[in-house]
Amino acid sequence: MNLEYFLKSKAPGWMDDKGIDADIVLSTRVRLARNLEGSRFPLSFTEQEAQQVNDMITKAAISLNNEELNFSNFTISEMPALQRQVLVEKHLISPLLAKKEKSASVLISNDETVSLMVNEEDHLRIQCLLPGLQISEAYSKAEKLDSQLEKQLPYAFNEQFGYLTSCPTNVGTGLRASVMMHLPALTMSKQIKVVTQMLARLGMVVRGIYGEGSENLGNIYQISNQMTLGKSEEEILQDLQEVTIQIIKNERGAREALLKNSRIVLEDRFNRSLGTLKYARILTTEEAAACLSNVRLGVDMGIIQGVPLHILNECMILLQPGFVQQYAGTTLQANERDIYRAKLLREKLNLKNQKLMEKGEERHDV
Amino acid sequence: MICEHCQERQATVTVTQVVNGQKSEKHYCEICAQNFHPFNLDFHKEEQIPIHQLVSNLFGLPVWNSGTQEKAQPVIQKSAQCPTCGFTFRRFLNEGKFGCAQCYETFGKQLPQVLTKIQAGTSHVGKAPGKPQRPDETIRKEIAAAREKLQKAIVEERFEDAATLRDEIRDMERKLEGGGVDTP
Questions:
Q1: Is A54 found in the same domain as A176?
Q2: Last residue within a domain, chosen from A229, A257, A285
Q3: Where are the alpha helices (DSSP H) in A64-134?
Q4: Residue of B nearest to A160 (CA)
Q5: Does any CB of chain B come closer than 8 Å to the CB of residue A233?
Q6: How far is CA A348 from CA A59, A294, A310, A332, B118, in A?
Q7: Cut 0.80: pTM above it
Q8: Structural domain of residue A286, as residue ranges?
Q9: Span B17-54, pLDDT tens digits
Q10: ipTM of the assembly?
């Protein structure tokens, strides 16, 4: 596959709307950090070592290609900045990898659910992204690949410390599992603060999806395990699973309470947001994300009809700066981006609008 | 402004502390500030704390931005330097990252005290290359759990409990070495 295939303006494979609990859990991500014995970590290795590591991992991964899992290989330094940004926004590569120049590369599976990042902070990062809540499925997919790669690659492993990683926050299992959740009701009812504190006590971290410092954007939160050492993979995954189910329960409870107490306020807010997305001419990332969150909640609650979840998923990805610029076909200033963003979202939502109008007219006739 | 602690000298150091999301600011003079030695303190907070500093704070070593108070630092194994990548323990604390896999052996002794602050334990349990399931897994888990308790007991100065735990760990380790059979 060529790079254009992975850059197209479409929600990535992991953002399907058919996952389990997909209205609240958007996606599940699992990543394993691995390093090769005999080469220093990317923090201190030479260009030559970097090249060697890159060759070894790429060769091993490509040799596993089959019908089910087919990798395409891209060198980061050969990509223009905007394309790197689009891959980051699709969560196919990390922001750190996008900045790397030293023999860094990525292998992406054709369905975009698996990506192997080479020479990021560690030599190898195996990442698996699935839609909805699928923690053990995502792990077993990553683990299977890891076991196949380990036959060809000499992993740096130590009896006491487990898989050795550059940062001691990843050592041991090298496993970071995370779920991306849409939690508007917990946010509106200010319960999210309590949830965040509770999670911290349980060794979980809460972050926004659009990178650092975007905690509140679009009411989307990424929850992941903090500890990687002293707990087995099963325990880590189990803990995250339990926490996630608990949060889903809380969110559903908060939604019911909101609907009971202030239905008309919600109806007003959701429809205003839909109107903004459909007719606004200037939209900042913040406003677009907030409106999308409202519309999404409206759809989940049955207040807004006729807007499919997959369109909203797509819009959530498309509103990011990289995608907006790709859509415009050029790099843009922030204020120009806001204009193109509004145009892009308008087009996406109007596609449906036309269909809706047709349906509406039919109903009128009957 | 006058130092909040001694109420005498001019306050030149601002200490920002965040506890459970509650931010509090204290103003001390240079001398009083030096006397405080807790972690999670960041003097001269001007911007966002860089990650390495956070790591350093976590590991109980305050970072001094002014660079003049170096003498107060405990001497940390000056001699230890990783033969493969040249990293020292000090550099590790600054960067928050290791230079190579060898570092884990080079700094193996100091590492557990660092890991207890950021991890669930100090020993790996779980998957290992080539060995999908280890039979002595459960013992290892128990040892890890007991080690954690031991650490806690020491911190809380419950030394009798600590001694009992230490003996238990020793027994379990013996079991492990003896291949699961208790050898007296």
A1: yes
A2: A257
A3: 81-89, 95-99
A4: B123
A5: yes
A6: 40, 17, 11, 20, 45
A7: no
A8: 263-357
A9: 666 667 777 787 777 766 664 443 444 434 445 555 55
A10: 0.81
